Amino acid sequence: MVRIPQMPRTTRRRLLRKAIKTKSLIVIRRVQVIVSIAAGRAVQETAEVVGCARSHVYDTLAAFERDGWLSLVDRRCNNGTLKAGEEFRRVVRRLVDQCPRDYGYLRPTWTRELLVLVAEEQTGIRVSVCVMGRTLRAIGARRGRPKPIVECSLSDRQERRRLAAIRRLLAELPADEVAVYEDEIDIHLNPKIGIDWMNRGTQKLVMTPGQNAKAYLAGTLDARDGRLLWVGGVVKNSSLFVAMLEKLNAHYSSAKRIHVILDNYGIHKSNEVQCALEHLERIRLHFLPPYCPDENRIERVWLDLHANVTRNHKHTDLPSLCKEVAAYLDYVSPWTVQSNAARPPLRAVA
After folding, report:
1. Strand pairing class (177-188; 283-287)
2. Residue 55 Ramachandran class (φ > 0 left, ψ -120 to 50 alpha, else beta)
3. pLDDT of 30
4. Distance CA 223, CA 229 (A)
5. Are 158 and 289 in contact (CB under 8 A)?
6. Are 269 and 241 in contact (CB under 8 A)?
7. CB-count burial class (<10 Å; 0-12, 13-18, 19+) for 72
8. CA atoms within 13 A on the CB side of 37
9. Exposure on the CB side of residue 248, measured as CA atoms within 13 A
10. Angstrom distance (rounded) from CA 37 to CA 47
11. Nearest to 139 by CA among 98, 100, 85
12. Helix (H, G, I), strand (E, B) or coil at 216
């Protein structure tokens, strides 16, 4: 027969405060059991309030009667040396940066079970899947989408020299000259599918038109003040790029020279573009190294455009989608001038 502890209300409160200071959920739950019983609740009621089994209530009371406060303390630190220690975590951190195929497995992505197997092969230490989950949390690992990249065709030295020249141009840009980042973007009628919040047991549906259609934009982002200019077209070709250059030339009519930083897409180097540049004498093209999208700042604007307009959209025709894209770009342009300052989301117009 377990004796019910008798303690005044002040003692119960003091015991709870002491448990909370330990920041141990196990200690707090055990103290809740003791305090609940000491307050006069029955075992069944205590089990329901605390959220545990009746046997846990009886075991906690028996241990408290025998050892007092020490019975409530989490003493897992006395279990001995942890198997998943610092060396084990270092091995797991290295494995996460690699691929299961590097160790002879067909699967291209990691699971906790596979990490357990490979970590045991590397260290000789066998842990459970739960311990592997705690190890991944301890090293700060996360599940996410890998970033696709393409290897640059230039040597490391050539790539560094070309990027250094562009950065030097931006750093030493005279007040009477302008530098802009330029790029094109495809607008698909078939929506891009992106992550969204959903209630448990449900999955949102995105209706697609089936037959895809496309429109195209060319845009520039001022490297100095973030001003956004853009033009649209039904075909992504040199004519679209030339239209963008002509808009730049007209907008920056007082600039002595206009430097355009862009990628190596074929429409930027055609004969049509070369002929147009003979008449647009103030414009100079500066090509980034191949496959360096991170160096083109307007890519961030396109990511925001997809996130705010084209992802999971419900438009059934291309004109309505393009109208919303244009409204977003016109709305966001003044905010880009303010260095991407925080802005409220664009509301749909009925």
Report:
1. unpaired
2. alpha
3. 87
4. 12
5. yes
6. no
7. buried
8. 23
9. 33
10. 10
11. 85
12. strand
Contact 2, 65 (CB under 8 A): yes
Residue 331 has pLDDT above 60, yes or no: yes
Answer yes or no: are the C-beta atoms of 73 and 27 closer than 8 Å: yes
The number of CA neighbours under 13 Å toward the Cβ of 198 is: 10
Pair 125, 84: CB distance under 8 Å: yes
Give 132-136 contacts, CB < 8 A, sequence gap 24+: 132/84, 132/92, 134/84, 135/84, 135/88, 135/89, 135/92, 136/92, 136/96, 136/112
Radius of gyration of the chain (CA): 32
> How far is the C-alpha of 240 from the C-alpha of 186, rounded, in Å?
12
> CB count, 10 Å around CB of 242?
21
- pLDDT, tens only, 45-89: 888 888 888 898 888 888 888 878 777 876 655 556 777 889 999
CA 293 to chain centre: 17
**Single-letter code of the amino acid located at 2:** V
Structure tokens at 260: 């355009």
Residue 251's nearest CA partner among 276, 273, 282, 277 is 282
Structure tokens at 152: 């640059």
Q: Three-class SS of residue 315? A: coil
Nearest of 280, 272, 276, 271 to residue 251 by alpha carbon: 280
pTM: 0.68
Integer Cα distance of 245 and 220 in angstroms: 9
Number of H helices, E strands in the chain: 12, 5
Residue 127, judged by CB atoms within 10 A of its CB (0-12, 13-18, 19+), counts as: buried
CATH 3.30.420.10 fits 156-194+206-337, yes or no: yes
Amino acid at 284: R
Task: Work out the end-to-end distance of the chain between its first and last CA atoms, rounded to an integer number of angstroms.
Answer: 72
Tens-digit pLDDT profile for residues 145-199: 888 888 888 888 998 999 999 999 999 999 999 999 999 999 999 998 888 888 9
* Residue showing tokens 């100079």: 284
